[in-house]
Fold these 2 entries.
Entry 1:
Amino acid sequence: MTTRHAIAPEDFVHTGFELAGHVLTITLNRPERRNALNWRAYAELESAFLAAHDDPQVRCVIVTGADPAFCSGDDVSEIMAAPGGGIAKRGAAIVHNPPTPAAIAALECAKPVIAAVNGAAIGWGFELALFADLRIASDRAKFSEMFVKRGLTCDVGGFYRLPALVGPEKAAELLFTGDVIDAAEALRIGLVGRVAAHADLMRDARALAERIAANPPQDCSAAAMATHARSAAGPSTPSGAWPTPTTIAKAWRVFWKNARRSSMGAEALRPAAANPY
């Protein structure tokens, strides 16, 4: 196992990391903040996916949250509104961020990933669910790409995974409105593969993960990498190519060009600080 992950799992503060057999469960563990992510939590999540990728004992990953939420997105008090940080760190010349390192780590993880969505998946929490290969929702789950309501835009999941799952028109509606949908609607539109009673969610997720982990690990890893690369590719990106240097950058440039022309003004739409970890 390599040590390229920045934070060792034994040093995690906000993230559970439990390997049982060949199934790794990553648990966002800031329940008092509804598992909102601060800088440390983002860095731990990135490190968790890197560790999963590197560990040959891991054959399948479950990502979930400590009840009552899956992930409510950024911790606004720390990332966006803290004195001397967040929006205050943004320079006038900086008009877009690159994809979040944790997003890249999740998408490049060569292990099948199951999102067990146990509650609200809001903003980047919705993105995290999209980065998974399979999604099982609790009957208490809620989903929202709420970025637009904060004058922000989504990470790579909303640009590519969401349209692939629900179709471009429904994806556009969710991205442009920031509407909240429940588990039943998520199942109806194809965002999740199944809905479980809340008490049965982790049992069902582990049962599916164990079925996957029982298969030859090389074949599962190859299938996961091919699926990740293809679903991240934009319409003009060759199959299997990672789109970050080209299509993602182009999408950001178009968004911010239009934002600066809007009546709200660029300052009102400027996103939070780039992740520094």
Entry 2:
Amino acid sequence: MIIIPLKPPLIQDQIGLRVTCSNSLNRKLKSVLFILALACFCHSVSAETESRQDLNQIQLKIKDFLRIESTGSPGTVGISVSPPDPRLNLPACNSLEAAFPPGSRAWGKTTVEVRCSSPAIWRIFVEARVSITAAYLVAALPLAQGHEITENDVQFQKGDLTTLPPGIYTSLTHVLGHTVALSLPAGSILRQEMIKAPNVIQRGQSVNVLSIGKNFEIGYEGIALGDAVENQMVQVKVSNGRIVQGFARKGGVVEVRNRGIDSAH
């Protein structure tokens, strides 16, 4: 019979212990490496995020810019800004600047340019809308051509002025005493081309000509050669037969501006 000697139990236990310890260390090492890798990834993502421009800041910059540009508007200002394209990947800017490109203003649908000059250089164009809500004048009843406007003929209506045609009236004093240039149905928005200011000078009227120059002022009489509303140019024939031209003023006065001595005298 052959007897095969076995390894001492103590040696077997030591081998098993070494294997177990080695596996345990590998698992711990892998865990540590995974945590370090995850931390580095998160730090990288965070750093990349911080280096990108916050698009919300662009919107806020545009709103502040339009709010300042709308100062003095004849009504309540409303501002809305279209969100920039979320796909934009702009470098973070130290100081955003906003401006109008040529042809844009703080009125209705508009465009605003936002640019950056430090540390990176870029610019984008963002659409926005500015509404101006105020009261404007409309015909309260049908108005015939040549009718002189009184307070009972008009009324105020509220709306967004930026959606209305140009030349509307927001003040009653600008239309009272004026005549209707063409017949208007009730509800018509009053515009400048629909209203005619009263003549302050009539053709053939005797007028006082006030000639104003540097360091002098001379008055004389003449005959108006045409009709004119206030501040409109009108020609006047003076006593020596010469014709001068000046601005029509209330009270039958024509104001002539001269750089030198009036040639009529």
